[in-house]
Amino acid sequence: MKGETILTGGKRIHLGGIHSEGYYIEPTIIEGLPHDCRTNQEEIFGPVVTLQPFDTEEEVLSYANSTTYGLAATLWTQHLTRAHRVAGKLHNGIVWVNCWLLRDLRTPFGGMKASGVGREGGFEALNFFTEEKNICIKL
């Protein structure tokens, strides 16, 4: 990409033992990427975050909802009304407000759009992990 800045991290970490063949990277913070670049549009299951400036709620919602994925989002604000308004407009299966990875296992968890199918946790898990079968016998 052109114009991005890696503020910290981005280098490979070499671990020993059973992890020696893996590919690990340092926690990484990147700024200066456009909202529609691959880094911002795909799910990166690693310690990578990008900083994306915005001026209005509408603008940041369009950025956040422009991806084909929707597993989770975090929202950081001091305003409870804003938290409810913006969280309700995000197309994600879970929205963490002022926290991350806090979860009650009795509640449903799963993504929207191309991020998973169904829900695990809560009563939804009964349907998700159940394969119904009808056995009919005439005696």
What does this protein look like?
There is one protein chain. With 139 residues, the protein is an alpha/beta fold. It has 2 domains: 1-53, no CATH class; 54-131, 3-Layer(aba) Sandwich (Aldehyde Dehydrogenase, Chain A, domain 2). 20% of the residues lie in helices and 20% in strands. It is built from 4 helices and 9 strands. It has helices spanning 38-41, 57-65, 80-89, 124-128, and strands at 5-8, 12-13, 24-25, 28-31, 48-51, 69-70, 72-75, 94-97, 112-113. The protein has a 3-stranded mixed sheet with strand order 1-4-5, with no helix packed on it. A two-stranded antiparallel ribbon has the order 2-3. Strands 6-9 form a two-stranded antiparallel sheet. The chain is extended, with a radius of gyration of 20 Å. The termini are far apart.
List the helices and strands and how they pair.
Layout: E1 5-8, E2 12-13, E3 24-25, E4 28-31, H1 38-41, E5 48-51, H2 57-65, E6 69-70, E7 72-75, H3 80-89, E8 94-97, E9 112-113, H4 124-128
Parallel strand pairs: 4-5, 7-8
Antiparallel strand pairs: 1-4, 2-3, 6-9
